[in-house]
Specification:
By secondary structure, this protein is α+β, with helices and mostly antiparallel strands. Strands 1, 2, 3, 4, 7, 8, 9, 10 and 11 form a nine-stranded mixed sheet that branches.
C-alpha cells in the first residue's frame, strides 16, 4: 500500500530534503519529516505555504503532480487591493501569461481565513487595502497563482495551498504532518 503524507509546509522552507543552493543553510523538508523513501508530489515555492503531499509511490506521485491529470489545487491568496468582479471574471475565464493562456480557474472573494499567522508577517501598507481570494487551478505552472493575480492587477502578498484533490490542510499547523490512507 502506498504511503501518503500530508504536510503543512511553512513559509521560507524548500520543498526538498536537501539544500544545495547556497552556503547559508535553508530550512528543508528534512527539518520536519524523517520518513525514508518518500518524495514530494509537486512543489511549493519557498515563499508559499501550505499543503505538500509526499509519497513513496511513483504512480501516485505522477497522478498528483502531472498537469495532464488536472488534479485540482485550491489556494488561499491574500492579494493587494480590493478584488473586483472583473478581476474574478478574468481569473475564471483564463489569464494570458507570458507562457500562454491559463486554464479557467474557480475564483471567489473570501473573508480572511482563520489560519496561523505568517512568520514573518506580510508587509502591510496603510494606503493600500488587501483582500483574500480562493483560487482553484488544474495545472501547475511555475508561480502560476502569483502570476495570475498580478495579471489581473492584484499582486499576491501571501499564498497558502489549502487543498489538493480531496486532501486538505485541516488540523495541520505549519511544520506538522500526518499519514493518510490512499483509497
Amino acid at each position: 500500500m502506498p504511503r501518503l503524507i500530508l504536510f503543512n509546509k511553512p513559509y521560507d522552507m524548500l520543498s526538498q530534503f536537501t539544500d544545495r543552493g547556497t552556503d547559508t543553510a535553508r530550512a528543508t523538508l528534512s527539518d520536519c519529516i524523517a520518513i525514508p523513501g518518500v518524495y514530494p508530489a509537486g512543489r511549493l515555492d519557498r515563499d508559499s505555504e501550505g499543503l505538500l503531499l509526499l509519497t513513496d509511490d511513483g504512480h501516485l506521485q505522477s497522478r498528483i503532480a502531472e498537469p495532464r491529470h488536472k488534479m485540482p489545487k485550491t489556494y488561499l491568496a491574500q492579494v493587494e487591493g480590493d478584488v473586483s468582479d472583473e478581476a474574478l471574471a478574468a481569473l475564471r475565464k483564463g489569464v494570458e501569461l507570458k507562457d500562454g493562456l491559463t486554464r479557467p480557474a474557480q475564483a471567489q472573494r473570501i473573508d480572511a481565513p482563520a489560519i496561523w499567522p505568517r512568520n514573518p508577517p506580510i508587509r502591510v501598507r496603510k494606503s493600500i487595502p488587501d483582500s483574500w481570494v480562493s483560487l482553484t487551478i488544474t495545472e501547475g505552472r511555475n508561480r502560476q497563482v502569483r502570476r495570475m493575480t498580478a495579471a489581473v492587477g492584484h499582486p499576491t502578498l501571501r499564498l497558502v495551498r489549502w487543498r489538493i484533490g480531496d486532501w486538505t490542510l485541516d488540523g495541520l499547523q505549519p511544520g506538522e504532518w500526518r499519514e493518510v490512507q490512499v483509497g
